[in-house]
Design a protein that fits this description.
With 261 residues, this protein is mainly α. Helix content is 64%, strand content 2%. A two-stranded antiparallel sheet has the order 1-2.
Length: 261
C-alpha cells in the first residue's frame, strides 16, 4: 500500500475520538464543579477563608484537610486533565481536516484487498486477512494521507485515457509490481500532462471569446450586434466560472469575484 500515494487510506476512528473526548470533558466538568464548590465554601465560611480567594500565597499556605484536595492540588489536576483534553481535541481536529479518499482511490484499494494480486503466474494472493481488511468498508470513517490536489479528477481521467490507449508504464513504475492487473504511471509525467491540459483550456478561454468579439465588431453593424456581443460575454463568463469550479477549490465568493473581474 506504500507503493502509491493514493493507496494511503486509513481509518480516523472518529467514534473512539468522540468517546474519549466526552469522557475527558466530563472529568473536567466534575473538576470544575469541585473547584466552584470550594470557592463558594471559602466565600461563605469566614473572613479568613475569604482572604484565601484573594491571595494565592495565603491559600497555598493554609493546612490541608485530610481526605480533601487543596485548591493548589485541585488546580494541578485540572491543568493535567486540560492538557490531555487539549491534545486529544487537536488530534481529532487534525483527523477531521484530513482529506476524504476519492471514490477512484477507495475502489482501487478495495479491489486490491478483496482480489489480491498475482505475481509470476501464481494464484491471486490477498495482502491482508479478512478481519484486518474490514476497515476499507467503513468509507465514512476513512481518510487519505495524500495531500489534496485541485485537479485530482483530471488525473484520474488522464490515467484512464492512458489505459485505454494501452500506454505502457516506464521501467521505474514496472518495478513496483509484476502483476499484469496492477499498473502504475509516473506521477511527474501525469502532472505535466494535466498542467498542459489546464493551460490549453485557459488559453482557449482567452482566445476564443476575444476572437469572437473581434469578428462580430468588424462586421457590418446591425440591430443584433450588441446582443451578440453580450451573449458572447455571458457564455464566456459562465464557462470561466464552470472551469474554476471544476479545476480548482475556489470558494463561492472567490468564483464570484473572479467572474466579475
Amino acid at each position: 500500500m506504500d507503493s502509491e500515494d493514493t493507496f494511503g487510506i486509513y481509518r480516523r476512528f472518529g467514534f473512539l475520538y468522540s468517546r474519549v473526548l466526552l469522557s475527558k470533558q466530563d472529568e473536567l466538568r466534575r473538576l470544575e464543579d469541585d473547584l466552584d464548590a470550594m470557592d463558594r465554601s471559602d466565600a461563605n465560611t469566614s473572613d479568613k477563608t475569604r482572604k484565601c480567594l484573594k491571595s494565592r500565597t495565603k491559600d497555598f499556605a493554609r493546612p490541608s484537610t485530610p481526605g480533601l484536595h487543596t485548591r493548589k492540588e485541585l488546580l494541578q489536576i485540572v491543568q493535567s486533565k486540560l492538557y490531555e483534553y487539549g491534545q486529544i481535541l487537536l488530534q481529532a481536529q487534525q483527523m477531521v481536516s484530513l482529506n476524504k479518499p476519492a471514490d477512484r482511490d477507495h475502489l482501487s484499494v478495495l479491489n486490491f484487498l478483496e482480489n489480491g494480486y498475482e505475481e509470476n503466474g501464481e494464484p491471486p494472493l490477498r495482502p491482508l486477512m479478512e478481519a484486518d481488511s474490514e476497515f476499507i468498508y467503513r468509507k465514512e470513517d476513512l481518510v487519505t494521507l495524500r495531500p489534496g490536489r485541485e485537479s485530482a479528477w483530471l488525473d484520474a481521467f488522464v490515467e484512464k485515457l492512458l489505459k485505454m490507449i494501452h500506454c505502457k508504464p516506464v521501467q521505474e513504475t514496472r518495478l513496483k509490481s509484476n502483476s499484469p492487473h496492477i499498473q502504475y504511471y509516473t506521477k511527474q509525467r501525469v502532472d505535466r500532462l494535466v498542467t498542459f491540459i489546464i493551460s490549453a483550456i485557459m488559453l482557449i478561454l482567452l482566445v476564443v471569446p476575444t476572437y469572437a468579439l473581434y469578428h462580430v465588431t468588424n462586421i457590418k453593424a446591425s440591430s443584433t450586434t450588441n446582443a451578440t456581443c453580450i451573449g458572447i460575454l455571458l457564455v464566456a463568463t459562465l464557462v470561466f466560472s464552470a472551469v474554476l469550479s471544476l479545476f480548482t477549490k475556489a470558494k463561492r465568493h472567490e468564483i464570484l469575484g473572479a467572474s466579475a473581474a
